[in-house]
Fold this sequence. Notes:
6-stranded parallel beta sheet; alpha/beta; globular
Amino acid sequence: MIGKKVLITGASGMLGSNLLSLLGYKNLIGCSNDFDITSLEIVTAKLNQEKPEIIIHAAAYTDVEACEADMDKAYKVNTIGTQNLVNYCIDKDLLFIYISSTGIYGERKNVAYTEFDIVKPTTVHHKSKYEGEKVVQNHLNKYLILRTSWLYGGKITHNKNFVYKRFLEAKSKNIIYADSSQIGNPTYVVDFVTQIETLINNKQYGIFNCVNKAVSVTRYDYVKKIVELFDLKCRVAIAPDGMFSRTAPVSKNESAINYKLSLLDLNIMEDWEKSLDKYIQQLKSEKDG
Length: 289
């Protein structure tokens, strides 16, 4: 165990809870919903009290559809909340880790994005996350901005467990539908946490894509693989146009490759199907246990 004091925002979420349980540091401080990052006073008081050496900022307003309806909340949480944390760090020697999304790249390409591609987000959510990125870049020297995609994992009981929800849906039906129009990288939260720790331990800074390897994988491919790995007989069909219509103009391409990690020989993220199989085997044990 390494003697770092690490403060994690969003500690009750899927990523935050896994960071708390998996990171190999002695002193982990989890800040959950009662830690209001939009309040500069609350943020300053908490950080002055804890004096962390590393801050992992995993808290965010992640409901992409709701962000379109409430732009003020999106920017208040995702941008101003980040600014409040960054303000504390400006004159201190600590590492700030900001969790972002490959969705910020926008819709300029139809193949996987690298960290060197131009960023042109299309939704309020992704714009507010990108503004948070810029706050970090403009004011800090020691930072990691980590762009991930289609993150899954955690306990069965977690209310945003996409994989287990698809299992329950497929178990109760003969046919389910999935969208084939969007591509991305299903990414296992355990792999992501391990990658974060690898970057910290190797004293890396800057912007990195952190996703499991996936080439042109659609939501349909993802759901079909979930049903297959659970050994269910339910048929997965491609959803007709408009079945999953959204208010938010989400990019059809959220796929990325860990280009910088690979160049540095630090890419530990596995193939998406291998990691998904590992997680589903764990879920089966948890479900039957």
